[in-house]
Specification:
The chain is α/β, with parallel strands linked by helices. It has one domain: NAD(P)-binding Rossmann-like Domain (Rossmann fold). Strands 3-2-1-4-5-9-13 form a seven-stranded parallel β-sheet, sandwiched between helices. The chain has a three-stranded antiparallel β-sheet with strand order 7-6-8, with no helix packed on it.
């Protein structure tokens, strides 16, 4: 089977490409080697160099029709990872996120609709960000889906979720695929649009669609220099540089952290299993972990204690809680995560120690968000 992976030199895409190639798939990678992911010298990027000789690499862009037309030739499956990532950055680089995430997906589908090809399945990398806030349980109302928190409450140091008609505290529960879709960032909006485009267009042009809503994927190969790839890489790079960590809100906000090999295995099930056809699946660990626990675990695993400050700062568009319900993907595809959080962090930290601290634009990214009124 021949598989095209857009963004296949990135974190998850490269891991998927190497595993598929090892299992005998014919793999083509289309990637523009973005400097934000691969630094200004992409030819020296560890992710890119790891692909050498294992796949057919095409340097190109999903927003360029000629690049897409040539890459799609003679492919059986497309796995679409190419995207701009990061909720915070998306709130001020709006045109860029829409042009790449929405425009690139639309171009891929336009090529499939208007050219001869052999593609039979299209797997799109969606995101947990399509949910915005996750699912909550109210003793008065049952399951509820709260909207974004107000800046006034958070400025006053109240970071908890509110919902009209609920007097008692809300309890975060696992977010299933039937939950309300109400993204709270431009990034989330673009991922939801990607997903809807693929799930709508593909059946009309004779291609089987599959969408995976990945939670916070982490593991070896994650960019330590990109300040928009999530707290795992940001915190670990700060720790290895001997710098303190500033935790936003009260540190109790939580996410679902899934080890990269589990995310790759889920994706391969989507490629192989007929039961994946026309379905949308959560991919995660199914367990929430607080941001404070992430910082403490990284300090312990890296063996470098640094000052940790819980500042009460917050970013516009950030959510409070979200973790995945995995019942559907377990029932239909047989996916069950193999790596507990502690095990995944141990493996990640062993890799991060070997990689060492890397210069990052993290402080500059925070300053830019403050200037634009998005970091309080």
């Amino acid at each position: 089977m021949r598989v095209l992976i857009t963004g296949g030199a990135g974190f998850i895409g490269s891991r998927l490409a190497l595993k598929l190639a090892k299992e005998g798939y014919g793999v083509t990678v289309l990637d523009n080697l973005s400097a934000q992911v691969h630094t200004s010298r992409p030819e020296e990027s560890l992710l890119f160099r790891a692909l050498d000789g294992s796949v057919n690499f095409v340097r190109g862009d999903v927003t360029c029709r000629d690049d897409v037309l040539s890459a799609v030739v003679a492919q059986d499956v497309i796995v679409h990872f190419a995207a701009e990532t990061g909720t915070g950055q998306s709130m001020y680089e709006i045109d860029g996120y829409c042009r790449v995430n929405v425009g690139g997906t639309a171009l891929l589908l336009d090529v499939l609709a208007n050219s001869r090809h052999s593609v039979g399945k299209f797997v799109v990398a969606s995101s947990r960000s399509v949910y915005g806030e996750g699912k909550y349980w109210s003793s008065e109302l049952g399951a509820v889906y709260p909207s974004h928190r107000s800046a006034a409450d958070m400025n006053a140091g109240d970071f908890e979720i509110k919902y009209p008609g609920c007097i008692g505290p809300l309890r975060a529960v696992a977010t299933d695929e039937g939950s309300k879709l109400h993204p709270s960032s431009v990034y989330g909006i673009t991922k939801l649009t990607q997903e809807q485009l693929v799930m709508t267009v593909c059946p009309a042009v004779g291609v089987i669609p599959v969408a995976f809503r990945y939670q916070n994927v982490f593991g070896p190969g994650q960019s330590l220099s990109n300040p928009y790839t999530g707290i795992m890489s940001i915190f670990s790079n700060l720790i290895m540089s001997g710098k303190g960590i500033n935790i936003f809100e009260d540190g109790l906000e939580s996410r679902d952290f899934v080890y990269v090999d589990d995310a790759v295995d889920a994706t391969i099930l989507g490629i192989r299993r007929p039961e994946a056809a026309n379905e949308v699946f959560n991919v995660g660990s199914g367990e929430p972990v607080s941001v404070r626990a992430v910082a403490d675990t990284l300090c312990r695993q890296l063996g470098i204690p640094v000052p940790i400050t819980v500042s009460g700062n917050f970013r516009v568009g950030d959510i409070r809680h979200n973790y995945a319900c995995l019942k559907k993907i377990g029932r239909l595809l047989g996916y069950h995560p193999k790596y507990a959080f502690e095990t995944g962090v141990e493996r990640y930290c062993a890799w991060a120690k070997a990689a060492g601290s890397i210069p990052s634009n993290y402080e500059a990214s925070l300053s830019e968000m403050r200037q634009k009124g998005l970091l309080k």
